[in-house]
Design brief:
By secondary structure, the chain is mostly beta strands. β4 and β5 form a beta hairpin. It starts with a helix and ends with a strand.
Length: 171
């Protein structure tokens, strides 16, 4: 699994060499873990930072594709580091404003105290972005987890959803 994640990261970096634009991202992540607890719904939320690189490909005048590799660190009771690979499609709706949609795959770095949780999480990202000028962009994105983070023996549904606010610099 680690090899396929590394190969995916190298593929995105290789694509970045041929991209029309490349850039870096920095921002804030807020992750909310939600799970049922004795028939009651419970959740917890923590905030951290993320850093990343991206490539941008214009597919047409109004559509573009933006693959990203991000590293995020969210402080919980135990720090949670994630390596993310995102494949975001953008639709320009105004001159400098876009809507975003695409898959986000994250791999939890480090170890859990229990083997009941998966290290791979798959999210559907929905967001919006704004090109501030030719070199600066801002975006906000919500990631809705599609797979169950809990893989133990109990019948439980555990999700980690995320809200990211990023500022990007385009070279």
């Amino acid at each position: 699994m680690k090899k396929s994640l590394l190969l995916s990261a190298l593929l995105i970096l290789t694509i970045g060499v041929q991209a029309q634009k490349i850039g870096v991202l920095v921002g804030i992540d807020s992750q909310t873990a939600s799970f049922p607890e004795n028939t009651l719904f419970s959740s917890s939320s923590d905030t951290g930072i993320h850093l990343g690189v991206f490539a941008k490909f214009d597919l047409s005048e109004d559509y573009s594709f933006q693959p990203e590799i991000t590293f995020s660190n969210v402080k919980e009771q135990n720090p949670l580091d994630n390596l993310g690979i995102n494949a975001i499609f953008k639709r320009r709706v105004l001159d400098n404003f876009n809507l975003q949609l695409g898959p986000q795959l994250s791999y939890v770095l480090g170890t859990f105290s229990s083997q009941d949780y998966t290290k791979f999480n798959f999210q559907l990202a929905l967001g919006a972005g704004m090109d501030i000028n030719d070199n600066l962009m801002a975006q906000i994105r919500y990631g809705l987890q599609l797979n169950n983070h809990y893989i133990g023996d109990e019948n439980s549904d555990y999700k980690i959803n995320s809200l990211s606010v990023s500022l990007g610099y385009i070279f």
